[in-house]
Amino acid sequence: MSARGQEAASESIVVSAREWVDPIPSTDLNGEELAAPEKLPAILQRVPNASFNAAGANSFTDAVGIRGLANTPNFSKQAVTLYVDGVPSSSTYTNFSELGEIAHAAVFHGPQGDFFGKNSEAGIVEITTVAPETVPQRAVAVSMGSYDSANANLLLAGPLADGLVLAKIEGSYLTRDGFLENVFLGTRPDFQERGFARGTLRITPARDWDFVFSVEIHRARDGVQRFVPLFAPDPFRVAFDFDGRTDIQGNVESLTISHQVEAGRLTFITSHREWNLDPYEADLDYSPAPIVRGRIQLNQRQVAQEIRLDSTANDAPWNYRVGLFADEVLNDGNERFALPGLLKDIAFEDEEFELAIFGRVTRRFGQAFELTAGMRLAYNTESITRERRLSVAPATAFDANRAEWNVQPRLALAYHFTPETSAYFVSTYGYKSSGFSYLETDPRLASFDRERVWSNEAGVRGDFFARRLDVRCAVFVNRVEDYQVERPAVPPDITIFNAPLVLAWGGEMELNARPVNGLLLRAATGFTHSEFREYRDPFTNASYRGNRTPFSPEWTASLEVRYSYRSVFAEAEVVANGETFYDDANTAVMRESPHAQGNLRIGYENSRFGVSVRCDNITDTRFFTQKITYAAVGTPAPPRTFGVEFRLRL
To answer: Total domain count for the chain?
Structure first.
């Protein structure tokens, strides 16, 4: 890649998608910009008002949110849906951390159920990986760093037969010693060992046909989840009598068939995903005393079918997408907790089914005005079978099921003052489906209602100075009914309660600038105030009106600077989050103060070779990325780390 090509590829990693302008907005990005192995957090931290509350166990019990709307760690449906090469995620805690070499990424704010098959209440992260093309691609990257970390990535792609058959093979392997020091056993319990491989076969028998078949596998043989007591004087020095482990494996298969017809592009996406956590073991008293040990085994299987018809005439007055979607998600597992003289064992099976029809159409009036309307009609069902056995009491069990219809309308207006400047307003309804908690014994508390949001947004966007400056500003208001809150019920059970009303409002700004050749600047900041307006503690009846909702930082900010001269470059970034609460009561121990983290990368790269050194969390800032209220534990952010990377393109 030439120096000029490097500069162009590095302009913007992620764009908050302009849903009211383009049917499928995306931005070319350089995969080298996402040098961290876990690319999804790296993407979201560049988007204003987006949060990634990592729990330190791949994606298990993570909470991902946008503008005050997030999933809960265990039981609620995902608020932010991830699409990778047309394959949707089924829940936040079963997302795979390794995504491969990324070609495009876009983040959509707000409900998108009228544009994508899988429902999303808070937004969509749409990722397209590098596709095999007629030009061969061969690349290898190797990195080493502190905590005995090592990472290797391989990409091979190109034609097999006269350009009609193309293939891609990519894979990665990562290993790292633990950040935690178990002073009781003399071990590093939160080590990581992860592998990923993907094979893609693409067949283009004619100009209007495209067949893509993909298979990928994932394996993580990690140590214990990085939960530590919140009151520990040093969050990286623990004393566990049992280290624990987190073994996750899974696979994804997909077939995408695209055909150009008179009405547009017809696409069929068939996918199958499996995710297995077997086992998850931990010292749940988080002390050297042999009091509580836990073992969790979870399985999830998803089969999905999506059919889309997209208009392809960009200069036509009508622009549209219509589609059908169906998926089935099967969950089962068991959790075992052992205490002195007591053994509790929970087993469950849960089945979800969704069938939806969706569509969005935009009508352009001249060169200035656009009117967009969208609609989603979905039918959702879920059933659960649960059994709990206690060594000191009779077994309990319950079966339950539910079914519901959901509708999501959309109305949006856009006005283009010039080809480079626009203003818009969009009003959308969205939802998270109802469901069940398999950790709740009482059937009356085990189910929860759907969450509904009325989202309104207005904004402006402009490109100035021959596209050397790009600015986007927006304000929003979300009115949320039956907001889903996860919290303890009758100890030691956990479930979700519905808060009658939540109001979230705020604003955000994104700026991309190229003031001089070789210098790139990107800034993004957002403010979200999300509070309970009607909600009382289900057991104490205490009013939580005015309390902040969990997993929603009050503000986010990021600043990136990259300067390149010939083949030498330097990159610096600062990522910051405002005050965040992790419980509905807003207790002091479950509060995380505002914090910032700085990262630095310098190196040399040309079209064939690259070498760089990096330092993440330069100031060794200490903060928690996740807290669990009912266990008084949290996940400390990774400490300061160093690394060096070598890249070779053939």
So the answer is: 1
Distance CA 498, CA 483 (A): 5
Structural tokens at position 163: 């350009």
Tokens of 366: 């001249």
Of 165, 274, 268, 175, give the one whose Cα is nearest residue 216: 274
Q: Which domain holds residue 598?
A: 3-649
Q: Is 101 exposed, middle or buried (0-12, 13-18, 19+ CB in 10 A)?
A: buried
Are 544 and 536 in contact by the 8 Å Cβ rule? The answer is yes
Query: Is pTM, for the whole model, over 0.85?
Result: yes
Q: Over 60: is that where the pLDDT of 433 sits? A: yes
pLDDT at residue 106, as a whole number: 86
CATH of the domain at 380: 2.40.170.20
DSSP H or E stretch at residue 452 = strand 451-464
- For 256-286, the pLDDT digits (tens) are 999 999 999 999 999 999 999 999 999 999 9
Residue 562 has what DSSP assignment? E
Instruction: Annotate 333-353 with DSSP letters as a single string.
Output: EEEEEEETTEEEEEEEEEEEE
Exposure b/e, 405-429, CB count within 10 A at least 16 = b: ebebebebebebeeeeebebebbbb
Res 367: pLDDT: 84
- Do residues 455 and 110 lie in contact, with contact meaning Cβ atoms separated by under 8 Å? yes
d(CA 361, CA 410): 10
- The three-state secondary structure class of 168 is strand
